[in-house]
């Protein structure tokens, strides 16, 4: 029976992976940690939770030993836009936090999942059908930390035998948690604003294509990779995974299938637009499909329908009320 620890467990990705793993393995088998405890309080209250900074190795090691943890999902990090506003903190948290986790994993013989990102690529990377193995020269601090993190995880696997694994996530879209400082945040917020107000002001240009994934697929990718037969894995850190690629104008068109009067306009944020311009239009995920049978379940239409259905029923100030005939 697995015993799992999650860092950054109350964030957008962490909270949903935590819910899935507790459902699958049992609440008492999944220990959560984060620097804060004032969000997603249901997760804090339902099972083991510790508040500390992941860079504090002694505290992390004590929890790992106490619960005899064998698998760590390391999700504590600053995201792209936030990292660009504070690059020194991003370097410190994203890399020193990862180093701390890897050292504890080496000493306590734990497997480690660490997500990388589409941000690990840069302007010199092929933009269409970006290969698994290609040029990685990012121009954002977030991307720099992700490339360094991939290499660091590979180092700990080859040097010390730590079972490190990871995926390069595209933009993630959730109907449960709000985004937290990423370049692809618009693709989440647009659904909330469509339901609440019937309109949205986007911070990226309307023709900016980026890879995206619905959160249920993102969670399944992480868990399936960690459950995969290690003998099949050639790449480990980190696999391209993708589900769909679209631009804001295309996303708005799909929203209008269910909210015909939805409107979108544009007030471009130059920082996030520059980051988006340096990323690929879409990824090629052949290695993940071959090495651990990755396959997404949601496309833009099925994701849009599900997002609008869930949000229209949850939000008290919803302008749009979902109809199954919509």
How do the helices and strands line up, and which of them pair or pack?
Layout (H helix, E strand, L loop, with lengths): L3 E4 L4 H14 L4 E5 L6 H6 L2 E3 L5 H11 L3 E4 L5 H6 L1 H22 L2 E3 L2 E2 L23 H20 L3 E2 L1 E3 L1 E3 L12 H11 L2 E4 L7 E5 H13 L11 E2 L3 E3 L1 H8 L7 E4 L3 H8 L8 H7 L7 H15 L12
Parallel strand pairs: 1-2, 1-4, 2-3, 4-5, 5-7, 6-8, 8-12, 9-11, 10-14
Antiparallel strand pairs: 11-13
Helix pairs in contact: 1-8, 3-5, 5-6, 7-9, 7-12
Tell me briefly what this model is.
By secondary structure, this protein is α/β, with parallel strands linked by helices. The protein is built from twelve helices and 14 strands.
Integer tally of domains: 2
- Profile the largest sheet: 6 strands, parallel
- The overall average pLDDT, rounded, is 92
CATH class placement of the largest domain: Alpha Beta
Kindly report the oligomeric state of this protein: single chain
Kindly name the structural category. alpha/beta
CATH-scheme architecture of the largest domain: 3-Layer(aba) Sandwich
Coarse morphology: globular
Measured by DSSP, the beta-strand proportion falls in 5-15%
Number of strands: 14
Unreliable spans are none
> The CATH topology of the largest domain is what?
Rossmann fold
The radius of gyration is 19 Å
Q: Number of helical runs? A: 12
The CA-CA distance between the termini, in Å, is: 44 Å
Query: Which H/E pattern describes the elements?
Result: EHEHEHEHHEEHEEEHEEHEEHEHHH
Q: Walk across the major sheet and give the strand order.
A: 3-2-1-4-5-7
